[in-house]
Amino acid sequence: MGVRGHFDEVAEKVQAMLADMKYGSITIVVQDGKVIQLEKSEKVRLK
Question: Per-domain residue ranges for the chain?
Answer without folding.
Answer: 3-43
